[in-house]
Amino acid sequence: MTTTNHALAVLEYARLKELLKEFTVSSLGKRELDRLEPAHSYLDVRSRHAISLEFYLLNRDHGGIPFGPLYDPLWLWEKIGQKGELLEPGELLQVARFLLVVKGVKGFLAELAGATFVRSREMGGDLHPCADLKSRIELCIEEGGQISDSASPNLKRIRRELRTARSRVKKQMERYLSDAQYKDIIIDPIITIRRDRYVIPLRSNFKGKIDGIVQDHSASGGTFFVEPKESVELNNRLAELQAGEREEEYRIIRELGELVQSRLRALQENTALLARMDMYTAFARYAIRYHGTFLEPSQHKGCCLPRLRHPLLKNPVPVDAYLGGEHPSMLLITGPNTGGKTIALKSLGLAVLSHNSGMPVLCSEVESFMGYFDSVFADIGDEQSIEQNLSTFSGHIVNIAHVAGNATERSLVLLDELGSGTDPEEGGALAVGILEYFRQRKCSVVATTHHNAVKRYAFTTGGIGNACMEFDLQTLQPTYRILYGYQGESSALAIAQRHGLPGEILETSRNFLESQSGEEAKTIAALERKLEKFARRSDQFERESRELKEKLRTVTLQQQNLDSEAQHILQQATMQARDILRQARREADGYIKKLKDTSVRQHAEAQAEFNQLSRQVYAEADRMERSHLEKPLSLEPGQRVFVAKLQRDGTIVSRSGKSVQVEVGGMTIKSRADELFAPRDTQSPTPAASEGRKSVSNYQAPATSVKPELLLVGKRVEEALDELEKYISSAAVAERESVRIVHGLGSGRLKRAVREYLQQSPLVKELRDGEAFEGGLGATVVQLT
Hints:
- The protein has 22 helices and 22 strands.
- It is flat, with a radius of gyration of 43 Å.
- The chain starts with a helix and ends with a strand.
- By secondary structure, it is α+β, with helices and mostly antiparallel strands.
- The protein has a six-stranded mixed beta sheet, with helices on both faces.
- The model is unreliable at 384-389 and 682-704 (pLDDT under 50).
- Helix content is 51%, strand content 15%.
C-alpha cells in the first residue's frame, strides 16, 4: 500500500522537499529530491535509514563528501545518447571534470574504515572512474576548451606547418609595409585577414604600384584589402593546412564522442549515484541544522515522538505525539479552534512520511520510537470542490470513503474535524460510525472533533485514547500543547471574547448554554478543568524527567570519553618511556663498544651496570602502567582476569594460596595473585564460552608444545622481531625455563636487534652467548622468568 497523492499534498510533503533542496550541493540532488517518494516496504525503510545514518555520521564527524564543483551532466548524456550529436570541446572538458569528481568521491569513500560506513563504501565502490576516458579528454582538450596539439601526431604536424606558413606570409607582406615607396598608398601598417587570407589595407590609388588581388573593400570604397600576387601561393598553402586542421580536429572530436558513447552507461550510473549521495548529504545537513533524529525502524505498530516539531513552521511549539505501543492505537484530540489540533495532525503525518523517506524527524532522541506504517491517509482542511460539484461535507465524505476502502492495519489515518459540515447530531453519529469502522480494522487513527457524541464514544470505548489541546482560560490563549488522558472544551465563547465579539452577545450565549446544560454537564466541566490542571503538572514533570535523562546521558558519554582519553594517554606515556629506554640502550651500546679499548673487566662491569639500570627503568614503567589497572572482583575459578606479564586476558582455572592457575589462549600458566588485574575485555562470558573453557581448564600445556629453539637466520630484522615476540610469549605461557635463539653472525645487525629486544622484555630473566655445542656467538640462550 502506498500513500496517496492527496495525503502528500495536504501534509505538504512537496514543501518539505523544497526545504531540503537548500542543503544540496548541485541540481543532481535537487532533481533526486523531486523524484523522492516514501518507501513502499519495511525493507526499503530500513535500507534508506541505514544510508541516511551513515551520511549523517559522515557529515558530522568527517565533514561530508568532498564533491567539489559538481554540476548536472544529464543534458550531455541526452545529447550524445538520444540525439546522437557530437560534443563540443568545452562539453568534453565538462565530462572530464565530472569524472574528476567521481574519482575524488570514490577515493574518499574507499578510505573510510570500520563497520560504520559499509553502505557508503559500497556506493563508492559502484562508481566508475572511467580513467581511460578522462585521461584521453585531458590529453586532447586544453583547459580553455581548445583542442591540444598533443591530441594527435598529425594535428601537431599540421599546426607546426601552419605556424611556419603564417610566419612566411607575414614576413613577405611586412616588406611592403616597411618599404618607403609604398608609404603613400598604405593606410595602416598592419596585416589583417579577409576571407581567410592575409591582406594589407591600401588606398584606392594602389593600382600600378602593387600587383595583387582585392579580397574586400570598405563600405566607403576608400580602403581596399589586397593580397599581393606573390603571397597568393603561400595563402593557398595556408588554406590547405587550415582545411587539414579542421578535418583532423573533427576526427578527434568524433573519436572522443565515440569513446564517451561507449562509456555512456557507466556515466549515467555515476550520475545517479552522485545524485543519491547529494540527496543523502542534504538529509544529513538538514538534521545537523535543525537537530533532527534518524529513528531506528521498527516493525512494531505506533510511534513515540517526544517534542515533535513541524519542519515548515518558523518557531514551532513542540508537541508530544504518542500512538500505539504503551498507548492506544487510536487517539481523539479535542479542544478549541486555533488550539493547534490540525498542526498536531500534520506534524505527525509529515514525521511518518519523513521517516519512510529516509529523512530525519524533528523530535527528541530520548525515548523516541517509530513503528512501520505502510501508508498515510489524511482528511484535513476544506475538501470543497467546485469542479466536482462537491460541498465541504461531501468532499470530506468522498475522501473518507476512499480511505475506508484502502486502509490496512499498518495505515496511519488522520481525520480532522470529523463529522463537521452538517447537522451536529447526524455529524456526531456519522463520526462515531467512521471511528468504529477503523477500530474494527485495527487501523492507527488520530482524529479531531468538537462533537460531544464522539467524545462520549471515545470515553466509553476501549482502545481509543483521549487528549486535548491545552487552553489558558486566564490569558484566553492556546498553549499548543497536547494533554493526554483528558477531553477538552471547544472554548468557543472564550475565543470569541479574545477576538472582540461584543459582551452583550457573549452574555446571551452563556445564559442560553447554561439553560441547555444540566448539573451533570456542569460537574463534568468542572472535573475536566481540574484534570487539565493536573495534566499540566504531570506534563511538566515528564518534560523535566526527559531533560534530566538527556543530561545524564550526556554526562555519561563525557565520562566515557574522559576514561578512554586517560587510558590512551597512559598507553602513549608507557610507549614513550619504552622508546626512550631503547634509544638510551642504543647510545649506551655505542659507549660500551668504546670501552673495549679498556680492560675486559671494566667492559663487563659497565655492561652489567647498564643492564641493571634498564631493568629498573622497565620495572618503573610496569609499575606506572599497573597503577592504573583495577584489581579483579574475585580470584575464583571462571573469573576473567588480565595477566600483566603477558599483557593478555585469561580465565582463572584454580587457586592455591597466592598461586593462581590461569588459562590464556588455550594453555594454562601459573601466576602470582598480585600479577592479576581486572580484565580489559569487560564483557561477561556467555554460557557457551564458559562451557568451552571448562573443557580445557584441566589441560596443562607441556613445555614440549613450544620448540626449544627459534631459527631466525636469513630473516629481515622487522620480520625476525615479530616472530621473536610471539615465540617468547608462547614459551613463557608454556613455562619453558630456557630457550635458544639462533640468529647467526652475518653483519651483526640481526644479533644486536635480537639482544636489544631480549634485554628489554619483562619475560626474560637473563641471557648469554651460546656455548660451542649450542651455536657459539651465532646463538643466544635465554632464561625466562
